[in-house]
Amino acid sequence: MQTDPKLNPVQSSRYIHFGEFSIDQAAERVFRGSMQLDISGKSYAILMILVKKNGRIVTREEIKQALWPADANIDVASNINTSIHNLRQILGDSPSEAIYIETIPRKGYIFNAVPVFSSKALHHSADHVQDDTNDAASLVDDAEPLRQKSSWAGRRGITMILVLAGILLLGVGIATFWVAHVGAHFSR
Known about the structure:
- By secondary structure, this protein is of the alpha+beta class.
- The chain has two domains: 9-148, Winged helix-like DNA-binding domain superfamily/Winged helix DNA-binding domain (Arc Repressor Mutant, subunit A); 149-188.
- 44% of the residues lie in helices and 16% in strands.
- It contains six helices and nine strands; from the N terminus they run αββββαβααβββαβα.
- It has helices at 9-12, 41-52, 60-67, 76-91, 136-142, 151-186, and strands at 15-18, 21-24, 29-32, 35-37, 58-59, 101-104, 108-111, 116-118, 144-145.
- The chain has a six-stranded antiparallel β-sheet with strand order 4-3-2-1-8-9. A three-stranded antiparallel β-sheet has the order 5-7-6.
- β6 and β7 form a beta hairpin.
């Protein structure tokens, strides 16, 4: 079943921009600014899976099914770990302070950046040819943000609010106890 490319920005757009990075889907190349990065093979494929499912958890099983045959005689888990490690290193990311690729323990990975899909490149270079009409205004007009905020990040925000509310209530409880018991002792 073929989907309408107008409804799917991943298919209808040549370029995907996030942070300081751009992906040229037609050439299967990744750039930081105008510098082409060495992301290829399984690492590139995993990056594309994560970007296309932006804001949603991608399980290791989903990655395995997308990239390796069922009867593959290799250590798929090790290959996924190596590819994720390589991607993080190239993107300047880390597991402890994830900007782009976050590990969700015992579940998989989530792509946290908001990708912008465009038919125009963002930077000039010899390998990265584009037309002269590609200024920032035309890029913004042509870009289609997939999502403003990841649902996982929203849940983390709610969790943080609940933790802070709990700490506040604990503080109010301690203050009330102190006033009722210790404060009464001083007023005698």
